[in-house]
Specification:
Elements (H helix, E strand, L loop, with lengths): L2 H18 L3 H12 L17 H41 L17 H15 L3 E2 L5 E3 H4 L24 E3 L6 H8 L4 E10 L11 E11 L4 H16 L5 E5 L5 E10 L16 E10 L1 H6 L8 E8 L2 H7 L6 H4 L2 H4 L3
Parallel strand pairs: 1-4
Antiparallel strand pairs: 2-3, 4-5, 5-9, 6-7, 7-8, 8-9
Helix pairs in contact: 1-2, 1-3, 2-3
The protein binds 3,4-dihydroxyphenylalanine.
């Protein structure tokens, strides 16, 4: 092959690979390969010395031409690649604005917590102070100080979770009365709410753990009228203006007289349905005037002071309001249930 043919084939090979270069890094190495100080085309100049004198000028010229051509091709390809690379970058980083967004599950309070909070707000609005007393109570607070007779069925170990002979998980929030009455003087208007425990067989409407609220007032001249007014006001704020409250005689050792109270059925509005068993009312809780024995035992003269008390369970309210059929759902923390509310 003549020197010129070699040069020609180098030039063609260089142009072909420039044409095929996919990015500027490849162009850089092609440039070094052919045009660098020791590049294949650059090296051709060194052969000039071995050529006959009359060919040297032309060959030198041809090498320079080849260098210029290759250099120009590299420059042109580099410019073309700038936009190709930019396009590729756009494709790589493209976002599909029509794609559905990511769904964030935000946390929120449990339905029972919301209900407790609402109840608390209503009674605070009526001047009640909320206190916390232990869930583990002594026998005295839970029963004896509440005027339970020795042989009451609630004292049965079957019904209560005893921890020792003398301590148990409180079976009702009414147990808070003893501690509060032992530490204060009338007038007082105090409330508590929280968990209670009973050794019940668990089913859709019974749980070993449930929530109650309990309130009581002791002052001069307190009567059943104050009790009824308080519960009615609560029912109106909780269930709405149209609600009626019904009181019927009932027995609890710690009140005299004692009553059971109900509100207009929130399902049928009082017409009668299968939830209220046709009565038009839903039973909420127990109430009454604080038994004189209890006042006396805490050093309050029943001739001077009187008081009322009431308490009710919490779970029933959200069950009715949201049509929840199974009490166990409140404690199970099943997200499929919780997310619906
Ligand atoms: N502690 C009772 C229960 O668990 C409810 C109750 C009735 C509370 C009468 C009271 C009350 O404060 O006066 O069934």
């Amino acid at each position: 092959m003549s020197e010129n043919d070699i040069l020609q084939s180098l030039r063609n090979a260089a142009l072909a690979s420039i044409h095929e270069a996919k990015n500027s890094a490849q162009l850089d190495s092609i440039e070094t390969q052919y045009l660098g100080r020791k590049g294949e085309i650059t090296s051709q100049l060194r052969r000039i010395g071995s050529l006959p004198a009359e060919e040297r000028k032309d060959f030198g010229q041809a090498v320079n031409d080849a260098k210029e051509a290759v250099d120009a091709a590299i420059t042109a390809r580099r410019e073309a690649l700038v936009s190709v690379e930019a396009d590729a970058k756009f494709v790589d980083e493209a976002i599909d604005v029509t794609m559905p967004g990511r769904l964030w599950h935000t946390g929120r309070s449990h339905i029972l917590v919301d209900t407790l909070q609402r109840i608390k707000e209503i009674f605070i609005g009526m001047g009640y102070e909320f206190v916390e007393t232990p869930e583990i109570e002594d026998y005295k607070s839970n029963f004896e100080a509440l005027n339970y007779p020795e042989e009451h069925p609630a004292l049965d170990e079957q019904m209560s979770f005893y921890i020792t002979d003398d301590t148990l998980l409180r079976t009702h929030t009414t147990a808070f009365q003893h501690q509060v009455m032992s530490n204060r003087k009338p007038p007082m208007r105090v409330a508590t709410l929280g968990k209670c425990y009973r050794s019940d067989a668990v089913d859709a409407t019974h749980s070993h753990t449930f929530h109650q609220v309990d309130c009581f007032t002791i002052d001069r001249g307190i009567s059943m009228a104050d009790l009824k007014g308080t519960i009615h006001q609560f029912a109106v704020e909780m269930f709405g203006r149209e609600v009626n409250v019904r009181f019927r005689p009932d027995f609890f050792p710690f009140v005299e007289p004692g009553a059971e109270f109900s509100v207009t059925c929130i399902i049928c509005g009082g017409d009668g349905c299968n939830v209220c068993k046709g009565s038009g009312f839903l039973e909420l809780g127990g109430a009454g005037l604080i038994h004189p024995n209890i006042l006396t035992a805490h050093g309050f003269d029943p001739e001077e002071y009187s008081g009322f008390a009431f308490g009710f369970g919490i779970e029933r309210m959200p069950m009715l309001m949201y049509g929840i059929r199974d009490l166990r759902l409140f404690m199970e923390n099943d997200m499929r249930f919780l997310r619906q509310l």
